[in-house]
Structures are given as C-alpha cells and as structure tokens.
Amino acid sequence: MTDLTKTLLAIVIAAVLVGAAAVTRPTALTDARFSDQGELFFANFTDPLTPASLEVVSFDAASASFEPFKVEKQDGRWVIPSHHNYPADAAENMAKAASAFIGLAKEQVVSDRAADHEALGVLAPDDPHAPLSGRGTRVTLRDANGGELASLIIGSTAPSPAGEQAQAGGVARRYVRVPDKARVYAVNFPAAFSTSFADWVETDLLKLEGKRIDRLMVDRYEVDERAAERRSTERLTLSRVLPPPVGAEAAKWTIDCQPPASAGAGATINETRIDQALQAFADLKIVGVRAKPPALAAALAGDGSPKVGQAEFLDLQARGFFVTRDGKFVANEGEATVTAEDGVVYNIAFGEVLFGRDEEISAGVDRPEGADGDTNSGAAGTESRYVLVRVSFDPTRLPEITTPPAPEPAAAPAEGEAPSEPAPADEAAKREYERQVSERDAKILAGKARADALTRRFANWYYVIDAKSYAALRPTCAEVTAGPAPASQGVSVGPTAPGS
C-alpha cells in the first residue's frame, strides 16, 4: 500500500469517527431544580376584585402559639369573623394583597430540601410538630365559593442577588414557598400582612375634632352594684363659646365644679389639661370590640320596642354597666359627655376594667394557661376598659334666631296721595331673618341625621379603650383649676356657671 493510499484511508476513517461521534453524542440535560424558575406562582389569578376572603396565620414566639386572622365579605361588606363580625376597613388592604400575588413570578429557586425550611423561615406557622423557630406567615386568598386563589408561606428576608441593588421603594426580598411544597424561592414581595385588629378597622371611634367641642362634662360617681344605685362624688362642666370671642381678655372657658372646687373663685384655668382632654376625644382609638345582645342593640338603636330581659341586663353588668330601679343608665366608673357645635352630644360611659394581650383585649379570646409562662394573664397583659357610647341631638345648642323688631307704622297718606313703599331697611332685616332661620333649620336637620347615623353605628357594640385614653378623657376639678388668677379668665366653682 502506497503512502498516498494510507493517507486517504486515514482521512476516511477519521471522517467516519467524527460522524459517528456527532450522531451518538449525548444531548444536554436540563437541571430539574430550575425547571419552573421565571413562571408565575398563580397564573389563573388575574382579577383583583375576585378575592372574597383573606386569611393570615402568623406565629407568636412570645406565647409559642399561632394566631389566625381572617377578613371576609358577607352580604357585600367586609367583616372580621373572629371579632364578632365587626366591620373591617379592608378595601385598601385587600387591594394591596391582590396586587402582591397577581403577576408574582418565581424569581429564584433557593432549595428543594425540607431540611432548609427552618433556616429560611418558611415552616408552617400552625404545624404542631415543627420547631418553634423558623416559622413563617401563611397568607391565603379565596374567592366567594371558598376556592383558593393564592397561598404562600412568607419567610425570612433574602439577600439580593450578587451585583443587584436593593429594590426601590423599600420592597423586601423574601423567601417564600407554596404550602405543602418543599421548594423555596426568593422573590421581591411588596406587602406585609398584619394580624392586628387595629390594622384592619376604622379605629377613630368618634370622628370628632377637638376644636368643635364647646362643652365637656365629666360625671364621676360611685355605683352600688348590688342595688344598682349611683352616689355622686364630683361633676365637672367646662363650657365655651364657639367661635371663640376676640380679644386677649375674653374668657375662653367657664368651669363649674360640683361640689365647688377648693381653689375658690379666683382659680386659674389649666388650659393644657383641657386641651389634653379635647385631644383625647378627637384621637380616641378602639383596641377591641364585643357584640351586644341583639335585643339590647335594637333598644339602643331605637328600633321598635324589643324585649330587653334578664339576659341583656346580665350582659350589661358583666361589662360594668347597670340600669337603676327608676330606669336610668349608670356605669361603674362614671361618664363623660361632650357636645359639638352642631348640637350632637356624645356620651361615653366607662365600665369594667380588663387585662390581657392581643385577642384577649381585641376580641375576648382566652389565651391558654401558661402560654406565655404565666397562668395569670392579667399580670402579663395591659390594662384596658369597656366603654359604651351613646349619641343624641340637643337643638338648644343652636340658639333661636331673634325676630327683628316690627317696623314703625307708616303715616297714613294724605287724601289723594299714594301709600308709601316699605322702608328698604325693613325688607333687608326681614330677608336676613328668614335666611338665618333657614340656615338654623338646615343645621338642625343635619345634626339630627348625624346623631341618628352615629347611634346606629354605636348601638351594636361595646368598645374597649386603653388605660391612657381612659385617664385623659376624665379631667378632675383639681386638674383644671390651680392658684389665683384674674377674674377675666371666666372660672366659676358654683352652680351658677353659664352652660351648666
């Protein structure tokens, strides 16, 4: 065989081997760990108006217990089932929740190992077999039929990928996983979900500005609970004119103390303490609610003549409220009443004290004994108090309009002369009087409507307020008067004070 033949044969063999290698080479394997990276978590959830309920389950490390919280739509309104179906101010929160889940992508696969769940903070919060550390928060959205739209366990904060800056707007990067799945992802998640009652309701109880209050009465009395009778101890009444008089010497407040304050008629007015009380009314926040029995709620709302019996009276007494033998309502820690310039009168009756934490206060849910290492929940909790709110309308707070004086009778025209026309000033006074009467009538209608709406709002509920608010709402005579002062400050300590 010649050298040329050998060379050609070698080339042919090499070509055959190259072709065989090309035909038989293995294809690249796709890493199953990243098979769904970049896909949407909930591709079928696209309409933010679809959710009819949201449930958040978080873990409370202090009590070693999980805390479920749910809002749902019932008969067209959002309520909190765990808090006696109290109305929820949920529109904004639900919109945030829907936007957090719609279009959420599986940005980065982190782990498929269940052993990593604790370190990543994505253990189920209500798993009785899981360790106490590393539990996440489970958030679930459902439709009106109870079908699941989206559900995730949200865990610890995740670091941003190498080379990437933190998200603008404070959006956190979190570890998340779908319940009952092992795979954990890191995603930019733009929402946080609270299980606090206060974060889901309108906490501004009275919706009243302090600058609109022209009268405050604090009635401190003691109640003989067995006899359901009251014994007066002190009554403080503060009155002012709105809009306030002009001039540095004009009196801002008139004070009436019963029994008369020991400071005497020359006492100064402690306007700082009064302002603190007015601000407390304006800022009064609820920290909890309890439902009243239906018959009692209907009676307080003025709905017909519901039968209020022994069960309703016992429910009142359990909260620190009583009905006397002559049919008057009393509370074991007295009352405070404020009147707004539009004639709407707010009465807040202060009932029984209660101690507790979290849902003990907000909904009356008992904590398990020893949950926080102490069987006495009162010792470990905060102090709060029941209040009962009633509203009425006092038209006398809108002064009657003074009738203009009758015009002087015109002299009889001489024979052959035309009768004289009414004086322009008389006609102007009449029109101004009619305008003021019409304006007052409109204010009375508006005040009555506001009082009726507030009565219905408050009728169904006992409210719970914190101890700080309770103290601020109840100034004493001693707190609002101190030391000698000029008489122009308008202090009165006897029964003749105007507005008393």
Task: Summarize the structure in short.
By secondary structure, this protein is α+β, with helices and mostly antiparallel strands. It contains eleven helices and 21 strands.
Please tag this protein with its features.
500 residues; eight-stranded antiparallel β-sheet; 21 strands; disordered C terminus; nine-stranded antiparallel β-sheet; elongated
Structure notes:
- With 500 residues, the protein is of the alpha+beta class.
- It has helices at residues 3-24, 91-101, 117-120, 271-282, 294-301, 310-318, 359-362, 377-380, 424-459, 467-472, 477-480, and strands at residues 53-60, 65-74, 77-80, 86-87, 108-111, 137-142, 148-157, 172-177, 184-189, 213-224, 229-239, 254-258, 267-269, 288-291, 321-323, 329-331, 335-340, 344-356, 382-393, 461-466, 481-484.
- Strand 8 (172-177) and strand 9 (184-189) form a beta hairpin.
- Helix 5 packs antiparallel against helix 9.
- The protein starts with a helix and ends in a 16-residue tail after the last strand.
- Mean pLDDT is 82; it is low at 23-30, 368-379 and 483-500.
